[in-house]
Amino acid sequence: MLKLKIAQLAKVLLISLFVTGIKAHSASNNGPWTEGDLFTVPKHFPSDDFKKEGFTSLFYQGIDYNGKEARFYAYYKMPKGKPPPAGWPAVVCVPGGGMTATPGWVDGWVKNGYAAISMDLEGHLPAPVRHDQRPGHPWSGPPRKRDMGDIKEPLNDHYFYHAIPGVIRAHSLLRSFPEIDKNNIGINGISWGGIITSLVSGIDDRFKFGIVIDGCGYLHEGDSYVNKFFKGLPAALKQKKIDYYEPSSYLGNAKMPMMWVNSTIDQHFPLNVFQKSLLATQGTKTLYIKPELGHGAEPKEKYVFADSIVKGGMPLIKLGPLVQKGNIWSVKFESTKPVEKVQLCYTTDSGVRLKRKWHTIPATLSNRSASAILPENTTVFFFNITDERGMMVSSLSRDFTEDKGFRDPRLDDGKIVLNGGFEIPRSGIKPYGAGNSSLPGWKIEDGGQKPKGGGIVIVDNWQNSKPSEGKQFLQLQCQFGDSGIISQTIDTETGQNYRLQFDYSALGFGPRGLTIKYNVDGVEKVVSFQNVKGQVPWATETYQFTASSTKTDLSFKGGFFSGFWGTSIDDVRVEVVK
Predict the structure, then answer these.
(1) Own/partner long-range contacts of 520-529 (Cβ < 8 Å, ≥24 apart)
(2) Does residue 456 contact residue 530 with C-beta atoms inside 8 Å?
């Protein structure tokens, strides 16, 4: 009898712990929902509606709607064969606005070794018609309102109030299946489903990973049409909408690894608030941004990301923060596979983000980093890095239009000259003939002293030569060709005093007199020095001038020298004289 009472007490205690949510999750903000609303394991029921071969069609319980039981229709499938010892890893697929339970989406995960479930959160059956023409069912909850206008209605009439528990309960349902590894379940949401995934990631910390396609938080701060859903509301209702259903109210609690996928011009989820959302989370972050990517497009990288979390698979490239040194921006990376391509993605436009035109150009790959000098008037940029598998990831973006007190990064540290250290392109020893445009910031011309054709050579440590700074310097003579001229027009302020400095040297066989001619706004100067065998020790030339206009021309020309050998310059800089 005593054993029976203890068993009954234990059963009551277990039920109490379950209902009150005292279990293995620790979210500190459950919004307007109770623990029972969110984490109850739902009852589920087989369905004959819209059955698909190989899939289980079912309904599962949501929270009550207007005093009656509400249910969600879903497709579920697992891979063929015997489950692994711990069970199949699984994914909860959260549909976007107007989407429904999607067997093709589920099948994509199944083919990659995951069980998956996809539900309809809008009270519909998955008929192959427009979303507003799909039939309902006897257990439908409230419909989704495109403008979130139901915030004015009673709580139980809010779409999000039902959709969030619907997703978390799908997770609990998967965890209850014996063939599922309950410790390795992820969540994948698209568009509106991405908004829901962003929100849920801050409530349900049982998820092993999250993948957000296009959705995000901070929608009330963006410049897309979604921002309009918040405008015009009375202050109290606007705040209620943010507190209850804006992902930014929950993202700070998200600790799981997350992958974030978006376009640069998505009409719903602008890049600035998208990035703000991922930065708000506590877990590791993987970013995939592709200019002009179609809305809702899902890259193959998502499967590699998931495998690296739950299967011990080879991870995607890991990127560090953006770093600026003088006029060069870079990002370091760690990769288990060789990197094949690095690109700079940038725009020079401002205004509404949807309407900006983006450009992609090669960046420089060197020593596990990607680097570039930003094209003139860049407003936003980031790097994309791709390994030999074709797997791409993105760096964080930098939006100069949002930096208070912004000044052109090329002018930082008073260095007004673009690529004055000749660090880009990173090419080792390589000649560049007249007219070549591969030296950012500089125009290359023929010196006119020999009919063979002039140019310049970028040099690193050839014949034990060393740059005065950085890793490369420039030789003002093309290999076995004529001397070269490089020139650049810099921005200046009329009447302002400036100081031009550059380091000079030479490579040669032995004693002889050498010259480098430089020209500042039409005033020509000459540096004369003596050559030695090997490399001449670096010296510095200084010239002070007063700008006569807002643009000042600089040029450098080396005297012709026999064969490969020639005069060299490095670390060209112009500083304001205060």
Answers:
(1) 520/545, 520/552, 520/553, 520/554, 521/545, 521/547, 521/548, 521/552, 521/553, 522/553, 529/504
(2) no
Taking alpha carbons only, the member of 393, 394, 397, 439 closest to residue 420 is 439
> Is the omega angle on the peptide bond into residue 425 within 30 degrees of 0, that is, cis?
yes
pLDDT tens track for 458-484: 777 666 788 998 888 888 876 545 678
Predicted confidence at residue 322, as pLDDT, reads 93
Alpha-carbon distance of 38 to 255, in angstroms, equals 18
| Distance in angstroms (rounded) separating the CA atoms of residues 187 and 302 | 11
* Burial track 42-65 (b if 16+ CB lie within 10 A, e otherwise): bebeebeebeeeebebbbbbbbeb
CB neighbour class for 157 (10 Å; exposed up to 12, middle 13-18, buried from 19): middle
What's the CA gap between 335 and 353, in Å, rounded? 31
Q: How far, in Å, are 84, 89, 220, 574 from residue 174 at the CA level?
A: 16, 10, 33, 64
Sign of CA dihedral 412, 416, 419, 421: negative
**Exposure of 94 in the CB half-sphere (CA atoms within 13 A):** 32
CA 499 to chain centre: 39
Report d(CA 383, CA 296) in Å as an integer: 21
Contact 485, 455 (CB under 8 A): no
CB crowding 194-217: b at 16 or more within 10 Å, else e:
bbbbbbbbbbbbbbbbbbbbbbbb
Structure tokens at 341: 């391509």
- Residue 414 backbone dihedrals phi, psi, to 5 degrees: 75, 5
Nearest to 306 by CA among 259, 253, 251: 259
> pTM higher than 0.85, yes or no?
no
pLDDT (tens digit, 9 = 90+) per residue, 251-260? 999 999 999 9
The continuous run of DSSP H or E covering 323 comes out as strand 318-325
pLDDT at 18: 30
CA separation for the pair 571, 468 (Å, rounded): 7
Q: Which of 209, 45, 201, 202 is nearest to 137 (CA)?
A: 45
| Rg for the chain, CA atoms, rounded | 31
Tokens 């918040």 locate to: 230
Residue 3 makes CB contacts below 8 A (sequence gap 6+) with: none
Residue at 214: amino acid letter:
D
